[in-house]
Amino acid sequence: MMNWKQQLGGLLMSLAASLAQGQTLTLTHPVAAELPREAPIRVALEAAPGDYLRGHFVTANALADLTLVSATGHPVRQLVAAGDERRQFQFVVGAADQVLEVRGHGGGGQFELTLDRQVPVASQQAPEREFLSPTIAEVARVIADDGDTEAFWQQVARAGTPLVEPGPDGRRILTFLYRGAERNVRLFGAPSSNHEQLARLGQSDIWFRSFEAPDSTRLSYQLAPDVPDLPGTARERRVAILATAQADPLNLAPWPADAVDVYQQNSTVTLDKAPPQTWLSPGTEARGSLDTLRFASETLGNQRDIQIYRSAGFDPANPDNLLLLVFDGDAYTSQVPTPTILDNLVAAGELPAAMAVFIANPDREARSRELPANPLFARVLAEELVPWLQHQTGIKTRAERTILAGSSYGGLASATIALAYPEVFGNVLSMSGSFWWHPPGTPAHEQEYVARQLVGMETVPVRFFLSAGLFEGHRSDMAGILETSRHLRDLLAAKGFPVRYREYAAGHDYFAWQGVLADGLLALADMANWQPAR
């Protein structure tokens, strides 16, 4: 029993065989015929100018072209070339007398021409827009019915932003909002791996962008309205977001609350399943001290501030003391309240008595030069800074109770320096470490510098706590912090290093790292079985 296509094909092949070469068929149904050996076969279109047509042109073991031509035979557009593996074609009809022309390249054979879809001009309109957020879908209907947005904004002001709505599989829908921008609004710190553009809802005063996010999300963000569209490099255009980035005026959880202005302030999101940040608030009267010293390195040719924290009752002669060295020291005494975290952990008996050393960067350029796997900077820390600390404070350091900690480049530096000097630094606390990093000019197949170094390295006595954010994934074709941290975790475990790894529904964000720092200290304490000094 032949199907309809076989029956129709046989009928049309018989019809085509009876036609003189050069005559015209009409594409109202699938056309199947013998390929012309001399003059081409033309296939007329029952279509009007502006109609969208899509179809397939198939030949059986033969070579043939399919071309859109004018009524006089002038080629308009080649749709399928002889030997072209892509047999689908699509085009918009330009004139009522245009036809399709099939031209064989000798040897005979058969062809089949099928029209899959035809959309007249009057039907060419985008489907109704779908919105991830039910609230945005509802206000869109109100606007379409000539309503205004005032009730919507009153509701938003009461609830605060972003909107949080139930999503699929226990996730949440976060909708970021801005009112009344003129040209654009960018979102800095989105639950993704990039800056994001908010879209305008019709011609209303609503700018919005919705995301699905885990119910454990914790992040901080800023909105940048009417970012100038500058001439210049792609990077210059990207960083122009900083010209207007500011706290969300409708967010009810600004951070820090006492910022000098909205440009120095972020807005925050903490969903109901976000892991608790237990140790951030002052909770004990046994508070440590914080002093500032100046450290000069002749080797590096620069100077920097070193802040030194000592927990309450700290005895530098106690061999069980914990020594914590933290990169980007200014951030870890301001944005991350590390002294308070240590006060609480030591007072609760979770950590031994501790001294923390906050290492500032001389400047931004020095940070980018020193922290990413710089052997000279590593030598200065191990051979200059630690002896200097011993002299200044009297502390008796032990590698198994010494921790290097940092985020981003600081996490990268913590790992590379400890691996180079395990006899000095026995623990690594890396938060969103930049393990994607590689020296400039490294071939694509040799990137991820730390991972490549680790493969050929002997296992040394260093413990690792690594963390990464779920919103720190790859960009374009380059692996991100999330992927490279997972890779490093696997390599460390395979090499026999003690390693704990944790992922957070967060981005590259001090607001999240406040909690990660305490989690990392507790994880290292558990791995090392440190007994707090009593």
How would you describe what is shown here?
By secondary structure, the chain is of the alpha+beta class. The protein is built from 11 helices and 26 strands. The longest helix has 19 residues, at 375-393. It is elongated and about 100 Å long. The protein starts with a helix and ends in a 6-residue tail after the last helix. The model is unreliable at 1-23 (pLDDT under 50).
Relevant terms:
5-stranded mixed β-sheet; disordered N terminus; 534 residues; single chain; alpha+beta; 28% strand; 8-stranded mixed β-sheet; 26 strands
Helix fraction?
10-25%
Distance between the termini: 91 Å
Strand order of the largest sheet: 19-20-22-21-23-24-25-26
Strand content: 25-35%
Main pleated sheet: 8 strands, mixed
Q: Regions with pLDDT < 50 over 5+ consecutive residues? A: 1-23
The total strand number stands at 26
Average per-residue pLDDT, rounded, comes to: 90
Radius of gyration: 33 Å
Brief digest:
With 534 residues, the chain is an alpha+beta fold. Helices cover 25% and strands 28% of the residues.
